[in-house]
């Protein structure tokens, strides 16, 4: 599984607060909304050049190595398939990546038009990231969650992209393939494994077992074909048993001898930056960047927290309040001409299904190649009614958190960015995704909307935005600290508590996450890159700068690392 796929699926299942990160006007279950008319969609993209068409072929070969990622994009010809996780299969994948790397180099030398050049740069980045994970990180030997693809089948359940019977057959094919590959999990892992990774993986594989015995069985109960239903239910139970066995092995064998080998060290961390973000910035410069943003946000937070009281709706009113905020964010975005809405949106606010209740709020969008009429779901998790009244009350998001999450996930965050990605001019740009752009854009919109005046009459909304900014600042600091500067998990936890105002439980989770997701610095990094590019455009254009034009130019080419599109954005604005 590639790092991009891991971020889209496996990491999401870790139980951490990732803030992921998936009709007329807005088809909410509250009945939609009014507001200003939607701006006209951008003109259709021109036909791809021959070089970009060839780049599409290379991208499809790359995606074939990670069927789960292709499915997430809406390429359902990959339904029912899983990767080859044998040691030989991994070696063949590395060899294929090397072949693709050479082919892209040759193709890039022929690229004349800007889109073809960008396609080549994106493909090089995608391949470099996969090679880094397989050859330098060796995640397939050090992290059991690398194999989450075998057990993650919720896409067949959640998205109505095909009739249920057809999706059940695809799920059955997936489960059959998974049973043939699951033997490689323990065979590939090399002890000792990193202790934080083992502890996290134990919970994940226990969860997979419960999910396959529970919600998957319930889904299959509704399948009409008795033969498919019976075989798929049996296969799911068999795979659940495999997940249980892996969890038991990790608990009894790997955990007692686990170590602290999660630390990357300076050289590999610098390679991570280059592979993931196309950056060769010195680590000292990045550290200073993170600390400056943290200090600025902490100062603003502490000043505001002296006078502002947090409030939250009760559980019964939570869903309706979230719908109102999403409606309001869309209306504000259009009325203030903040960014173009490229197509009619179709997103629904819904209660989180039982088998996905690992986060308080998150987006579950369709892939860029899924049918446009399929809705995206903004899931909001209600507290468990079996909890005490105090626990239920404290679980509900504060009103500041509701606004921040709604902006981040829907308008104008992840959901809107996904609508733009559907309109990207080439196949490669449609499938591009980088941690810093995807999460950086969504995180940037939280601050940008507050700066533009959204909910300006409610100071606790700004307090919520600053709280989220501090959380992401500490991720940046903790990532470098843990992997380069000798910071312990306990020391990272203390920084989340003392500097970034997190409660102890969340601080512990966030510090642990930094051990196996060092790239989570990308939230703040991406936000700061976007702010810097915007400032450069404003400085060059002066009175001619328009916020909506900047955002449209930024979103027009998929979601690659910001350095790859900087010049394209400035040229589109006439700032070059």
For this entry, give a set of tags.
three-stranded mixed β-sheet; 26 helices; disordered N terminus; globular; mainly alpha; about 575 residues; about 0% strand; about 60% helix
What does this structure look like?
Residues 1-45 have low confidence and may be disordered. This protein has helices spanning 3-8, 50-64, 67-72, 87-110, 114-137, 139-142, 154-158, 164-181, 183-188, 195-213, 215-221, 226-254, 266-277, 283-305, 315-335, 389-395, 399-409, 414-422, 427-431, 435-452, 459-484, 489-498, 504-516, 522-541, 547-555, 562-572, and strands at 347-351, 361-364, 376-380. The protein is 62% helix and 2% strand. The chain is mainly α and 576 residues long. It has 26 helices and 3 strands. Among the domains are: 54-67 and 77-137, no CATH class; 281-343 and 400-523, no CATH class. Strands 1-3-2 form a 3-stranded mixed beta sheet, with helices on one face. Helix 10 packs antiparallel against helix 12 and helix 17 (399-409) packs across helix 20 (435-452).
What's the short version?
With 576 residues, the chain is an all-alpha fold. It is built from 26 helices and 3 strands.
User: How much helical structure, as a percent, in the residues?
Assistant: 55-70%
Q: Low-confidence runs (pLDDT<50, min 5 residues)?
A: 1-45
Structural Rg: 23 Å
How many helices in DSSP terms? 26
Main sheet overview: 3 strands, mixed
The N- and C-terminal alpha carbons lie at a distance of: 39 Å
> Would you tell me the overall average pLDDT?
90
* Order of SSEs: HHHHHHHHHHHHHHHEEEHHHHHHHHHHH
Could you give the order of strands across the largest sheet? Answer: 1-3-2
Strand content: under 5%
Count all strands and give the number.
3
Basic shape: globular
| Helix/sheet category | mainly alpha
